[in-house]
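Morning. Coffee machine broken again, so started the prediction first thing and wrote up yesterday's gels while waiting. Chain of 350 residues, entered below exactly as on the submission form.
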Amino acid sequence: MKKKSRILLFVLLALAVIGAGAAYLFYQTFYQPNVAAVEKPQDIRIYRHFDSAQMLEAVLQSGMIDNEKTFLRAAKAMKLQEHFRPGLYRFKKGMGNKALVRSLQKGWQQPVRLTIPGYFRSLDRFADFLDEQLEASREAFAATLADSSLAARYGFSPESFIGMFIPNTYEVWWTVTPEDLVERMHQEYEKFWTAERDAKALAIGLTRQEVSTLASIVIEESKYEPELPRIAGVYMNRLQKDMLLQADPTVLYAVGDPSIKRVLNRHLETDSPYNTYKYAGLPPGPITMPPVAAIDAVLNYERHDYLYFCAKDSFDGQHAFAKTLSAHNENARRYQQALSRQMKAAVTAP
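Came back before lunch.
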């Protein structure tokens, strides 16, 4: 009897040990924290074209997994190889394998903070930027942004479409499609154009798109924000007097070379609707993606009598303004003389 009791006790102890081992293995496989304690979490990018091997390689090579064996065991048990979603993932400290695998299966992504700085001179350049930030290829973004029917759907021409993208910081999914991103940007455009901004545009006699076009010229003239409303006022005065805008940045855009330092007579002869020395009124669309500061500078332009401006001879990025052509010519003469002296000094410097 005692012998049978000892055998039974031994069996029970063995079962207890096996059960404890199985329980620990289960805990270790699915629930034990398995995210490496790194100083800066690494983003894991799972592309749409990845197969299961590439997906697992991306996860393991991220350096975020402490115990690769248990992760692979959980992945196999939960059939991760059969079902996972593309996305940008950032695993958090304390996550176990079950949570890690479910994140990849459910597509629980980390949103991307997409900061659009503006100043893109074309939608092609904008496509280059988006290619660096999001999953879709440069070619996919370029094709979507060049789709005239898509632009028309939102009330834009191909030339004015760039004005729909308001420079700001947005949270988007890394996997957002080009079409969905454009839709999101249209929603943000409508939010940006509040009743107050629309009322101001109406009061100055410009449409939203015309405001963006003029703002693009203003910001290309100066990056010194305090004087943007004054520059906008000069162009509004010219528009109201049916004068040619004669904006040098539009000529550079027409020529296709923004690096030109001095606009010459041969540049002014360029035959383009963007050449405001030849064609009256605003050009067909923005010559760059204008920032919010420039748009608001147009909507709140400074009321004055100035019709001319040119760079100051102090070379501090500011401008000298004039009401008459003779005063403007004097300002321009001082600037050209200072520029010539500067260039001469640079040549003769040892």
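The two ends are 109 Å apart (CA to CA). Going to sketch it on the whiteboard this afternoon.
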